[in-house]
């Protein structure tokens, strides 16, 4: 099979299309012919030489990728509920930038017929991170929630989930994305100098919780608005989280949560903007696109 992989860490140029042996489904697994795979900041960090947390082993040449969607083409012993030809969404730690992925059957869910492949391939990472983050900061009915990097892939879903759960949402983003945030139900606010004053003007009674996908200065000023720092969570600024005494958030993934997100999409209550798609052989270009930062929505690899 073909896959995008790197033999040594470095710039996006180290990502090359390589040939690997086809994997085969073991007991309790399925093999999926991949139609789309999302590109995440985690993938970029790994490719750049970042050392992942304990339990994640990099074996060079390494195929990155943590989310995908495709068609089941092999079913292992003991698997029920899925068959050859089932269209599915899934997640796996690494190896998803490939034509075939084997995965435990308890990590796949049925793809809604109405969901395009590129959305399915990019749903798990952003969706489960947004869901986890909002639950950890206790966002819910009656809250005013501030979401940093609200126009990104995680932010896009976090805004919609928080609104669906009854919260008022203020979202930071560049001005070119303000109409987009309004379309999702958020009140937009610009980054940069004067952010604290702009947020106070929009929320004179205060902010109840913050979900951060930007880090840096935006996270530093967040502690001015929320009394309980346990209700400030960051998905990116872990070193700063320790310094400020706020909550570092690491996404917790499950098929049940992914199925809930897929159901919300099917009901018309959730959407994911796809910023751009790239064929597998242009995986390096996909990484460059994500590295530009502050882009709207998701970048996805597509497969023939």
Automatic annotation (TrEMBL):
Residues 10-301 form the Enoyl reductase (ER) domain. The keyword Zinc-finger does not apply. The lineage of its organism: Bacteria, Bacillati, Bacillota, Bacilli, Bacillales. The keyword Transcription does not apply. Keywords: NADP, Oxidoreductase. It comes from the Bacteria. GO terms for molecular function: NADPH binding; oxidoreductase activity, acting on NAD(P)H. PANTHER family: QUINONE OXIDOREDUCTASE PIG3, QUINONE OXIDOREDUCTASE PIG3-RELATED. This is Alcohol dehydrogenase. Pfam families: ADH_N, ADH_zinc_N_2. InterPro entries: ADH-like_N (IPR013154), ER (IPR020843), GroES-like_sf (IPR011032), NAD(P)-bd_dom_sf (IPR036291).
């Amino acid at each position: 099979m073909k896959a995008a992989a790197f033999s040594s860490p470095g710039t996006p140029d180290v990502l090359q299309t390589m040939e690997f042996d086809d994997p085969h489904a073991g007991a309790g697994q399925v093999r999926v012919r991949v139609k789309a795979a999302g590109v995440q900041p985690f993938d970029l960090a790994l490719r750049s030489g970042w050392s992942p947390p304990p339990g994640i082993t990099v074996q060079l040449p390494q195929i990155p990728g943590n989310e995908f969607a495709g068609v089941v083409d092999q079913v292992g012993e003991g698997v029920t509920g899925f068959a050859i030809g089932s269209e599915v969404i899934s997640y796996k730690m690494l190896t998803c930038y490939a034509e075939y992925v084997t995965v435990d059957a308890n990590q796949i869910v049925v793809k809604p017929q109405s969901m395009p492949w590129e959305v399915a391939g990019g749903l798990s990472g952003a969706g489960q991170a947004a869901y986890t983050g909002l639950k950890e900061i206790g966002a819910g009915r009656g809250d005013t929630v501030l979401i940093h990097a609200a126009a990104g892939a995680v932010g896009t879903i976090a805004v919609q989930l928080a609104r669906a759960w009854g919260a008022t949402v203020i979202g930071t983003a560049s001005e070119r994305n303000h109409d987009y945030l309004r379309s999702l139900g958020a009140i937009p606010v610009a980054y940069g100098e004067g952010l604290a004053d702009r947020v106070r003007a929009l929320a004179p009674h205060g902010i109840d919780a913050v979900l951060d996908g930007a880090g840096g200065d935006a996270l530093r000023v967040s502690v001015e608005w929320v009394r309980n720092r346990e209700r400030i969570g960051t998905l990116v600024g872990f070193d700063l989280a320790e310094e400020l005494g706020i909550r570092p958030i690491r996404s917790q993934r499950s098929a049940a949560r992914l199925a809930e997100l897929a159901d919300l999409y099917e009901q018309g209550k959730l959407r994911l903007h796809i910023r751009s798609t790239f064929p597998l052989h242009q995986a390096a270009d996909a990484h460059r696109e994500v590295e530009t930062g502050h882009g709207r929505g998701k970048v996805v690899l597509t497969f023939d």
